[in-house]
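Repro:
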Amino acid sequence: MPRFSIVVPSHGVAGRLSLALDSVLAQSFGDFELIPVCDAPDAPAADVVAGYAERDCRVTPVHSPPSAGLAGARNTGLEAAAGSHVLFLDGDDVLVPGSLAALDARLGETGDVDVLYFEHERTPWWEGEPTNPAAPLLARTPDGAFPPGRVPRLTGVALPAWSALYRRAFLTEHNLAFPGEHYTDIGFGGLVALRAERVAALRAVVVRHLLRRQGNRLGLPGEHHTELLDQCERVLAEAAEQELAADRLKPLFEQLFAVVLKTAAHPRRLTSGRRAFFRRASALYRRHRPAGYRAPGGSLGVQHRLLASGSYPAFHALRAANRTASRAAALLPRPRGLRTRLRYAVGLRLPLDENLVVYCAYWGRGYACNPAAIHAKARELAPHLRAVFLVEPDAVGSVPPDVEYAVIGSRKYWEVLARAKYLVNNANFADAVVKRPGSVHLQTQHGTPLKTMGADQATYPVVAAATGSFARLLARVDRWDYNLTSNRHSTEMWERAFPSAHETLEYGYPRNDVYCTASAEDVARIRKELGVPDGKKALLYAPTHRDYATGFETGLDLAEFCEAIGDDYVVLLRAHYFYDQGASRGGGRIIDVTGHRSSEDVCLAADALITDYSSIMFDYANLDRPIVVYADDWDVYRETRGVYFDLMELPPGRVARTSEELAAVFRDGSWADGTAASLRAAFRERFCQFDDGRAAERVVRRVLLGEPPESIPHVVPLAERVPAPAATLTRS
């Protein structure tokens, strides 16, 4: 039995069908059957499919007449399916690279749930930016499997059928098939959600849906819109039969009637029979309205009340008035944020403040990383400069008492952004920030790229959707005057990922200066602050973020790991900053340092690093201390996220693919043996080229003081550097 059955209806899309089929057959995960559904053996799509079936035995075409519609084609494909799970893909859509591997990995985490919902990208093929409408609906779903009642708004009717994976046995046990011909996704999705007992979510894009230039079939005028009420009645009748709980019935009712009201109010969809449509919808509304239901506010609430009362003339008048008001509003400037925009516009007309430097790190998460290191060195070398750090409201406490700051979005925030001569960031400033003539933007980055970044993410849609508009991304990159790198690899990759006219500064990362300047006393002090017991070896475990996973999971049972390697060790757990919730996950020999402000301090305290694919390995390598790579899901990560080189071929030390292997390298000492040292030495030669302890000085002199390149201190050769000493280890 294959893992997945992928059903692809093909009516009217023969010209793009090959793209859909190629996107499936190119998946790295190969345990599937592909079921194209053609109109007939002599149809245009059948000719396309025939060639695929000859070349690949996993392609098994079936036929369904055009008169059966989309629902009939899907049902025919479902009847032929033999896989444990079924995925429906429209013939003019594509499955993004790595998505089947991501689905398989997610099922491995959740078990065989009845339904696995996932995100999709709606892509205009002529103009406009891609959108991800499922993301808000799935954003707050639980990390594991859950009953539908835990997320009442996940009713199934707000997502298309191709935005979920279905357990085939669940569909057959409940005789679930696509009903009707039009609006079939609403009927199918609603019934599936009502019958499901265990569901889960994958917060990653799996399908890229092409928005046709001519629009969706359901947007065209015709009598077929009356079938919407058939589907709504079918779903609501099932909910009534189940005596669905009020907290689930309310969002189901609202989402169904949101579509009904949109259709009733649309001036072109119902060319005739509007009054009959409205009256039937009104009767359906009153029959299934939840007890004690309160209509929403505003114009939508008025429409609800008119539908409940059956007042078609008033509804018709309101619809006309709303269209008139919308046309008038389009001619007026938007009032939202007008005062802020005016203040910023006025500030942009004032002269630049030649001595003002604005810093920001990690989108305002606090005083950290390269911007903080540059700020500290500027105080020493350029004390005449005024510095303002931009922070979010909840990060104000991380700013040292003697550092001036501005809360993001505040009046001061926009004032300093408008006037600053220098703007320093390790991420990017907001889209609304204007690059003024004469201002200097320095991008410091915040790591060496193993995973794909910037424009290179476009070919990995599982993560491209999270990146958003690449046009806006490149517009932000165009503001950069300087881009900082810590090694030649980064120089090359940043030029690919962020193509623009900025100047590259191969000066090293200022935050890494401390790895060459810290003393044994500094290391001892930091270990004491973190609670590392005297005489214990501290292992820093720092896993990275998975784009295909939901929430933070260590991927390693740390308690079992500690038990397996003996009492000589403690583990410092540092989750990716995406998951810094300020709560401790540790206990006993596990010390949670995720919330600690400085990752550099944590690295200094650690005698060795355990990581997977986090860029922290490149920074930690400057300390010349052992690194062990725990690569339990490398193949999935590489296919889903995309990488610039094969870490398994060029690791910074020993590699473990299972938790047992990981424990073994610490029990037998191979984590710090000669082979590990040789691997680390080669890694350092490639990735520790410019981090010699003077990066911040070079940046301040060149960017903030304007000194010529020839006067900037040269990089100290790797062999001449003396990294900060470890607490319990002798360096190889």
